[in-house]
Protein 1
Amino acid sequence: MRKVQHGFTLLELMIVTAIVGILAAVAVPSYQAYVYRAKAAEVIVVMDKIKSVLAGLQSQTGATLGTPLKLGDNTAARNDMSAPALTYCISVQTKCVDGYKLVSGLNRGELEFKHLGVRLLVSSGYLHTDSPGQYKISINEATDITRHDPALHATAQQIMLAVHHVMKPHTYLNKVGHGDVYLYFNMNGK
């Protein structure tokens, strides 16, 4: 009587290994892109809040963002994450009338994503344009945080690209730099 052997041949094992490798090669990048898009959603939610705060500021002041309502960074409280992130002034002939005042509703800590290695910067207008209702959000890599962490550096780069990819259709102008992404918006849409 003949003894029947059970098991797989070397060829069968190699074929299965090749199939698993091909599936992994397709699935892993898709999974990583999904993870980065999910992390980018956190940044996008804050970007939506920025638009709401800026719309409220426009209605509160009665001025249009960019002209004559100018935004600035709250430099007085750089290290206080609970301090307001932005200041504003109403400019008349390129000069602020009453100096800069604090913008309520958005604190500095909301613009810092240390666990993602990025931070947001907000400004009004676009370069020397006087078109009303425009603002810019810069997504910058927080190099002071990512400098000594290569994995966080890679994450920051991917987050910036994912945010750019999702928000690009909603901008009138955008730019991808080495360590930053610039997104230009109109308050009333594109």
Protein 2
Amino acid sequence: MKLEVCFDDATYQVEVPEVMMTESAAFYDKMDSDMKQGWQMGMEYVESPDLLQRCQIAADKLLTAMENENQSLAQLMAGYILLRLPRVRSVTPDITGEILNTVFDDG
């Protein structure tokens, strides 16, 4: 599966092998469990992030992974987003540190 990631006036494609998404299910469940305990999302602390907020957190990690050229982590975070929001085709992570401003598009 593919996820488009848009930032710095460019669009990048992150290809996530189906097998990676399947094999990472336990990892994704652990991410959900950890995030449900609360998360600092930019200037705001969210006590129990909902599904969209958890995907915004994953998108922030995806952005950092791409900036650090960590392809494996980028694929893992893209896979998380694609599994949790199956209609999503692209994400525009907020690059200013305000995770809650991250936008997903299903078009």
Protein 3
Amino acid sequence: MTDVDVRGLPCPRPVVETKKALDAIAEGTVRVLVDNPESRDNVRRFAESQGCSVEVSEGDGVFRLSIVKGEAVAAEVAPPPVQPDAGNGDAVVLVGSSRLGVGDERLGDILMKAFLNTLWDYTPRPARLLFINSGVFLTTEGSEALETIQMLEREGVQVFSCGTCLEFYGITDRLRVGLVTNMYDTVDSLLSASRVVRI
């Protein structure tokens, strides 16, 4: 068993260190120690995306993830990540602000809502929406665009909000659509996409 203690490390280090440990073995168990729910979820999601099985336990404020790689999990490989519907494209949209454009703030709010509504009507839809910086306000309670983003998710568009950004603004508990992600997943999504649209 390999132990990886990533308590106190900022995003995306817990995922990066977990990846290094998994890459170093053909099969076996890696035990990862983290100290917050965001890191727990990010490491678990990453490990499952690599075909590993993951068991999580908690005690004394520490999350222990037991990650099994190799033949031991061949019969119980985690399901693949949610894929977009066949009618969706493979583009990734990176939303870096809660407003669209530079200028009047209210106009920026109106334009962003119109953009997301148009995205809903457009074919093909993107495969994934990534919300970073103040863009995470769009996926949280009180957002005027929340209903549209929820409809996009129901139609197979994957929705991710930056965990560091949610934490920075103190709104992690207000997330209402999609999943919390980390910088490793964000970089992977951007570099593996055939097309990235930044707004």
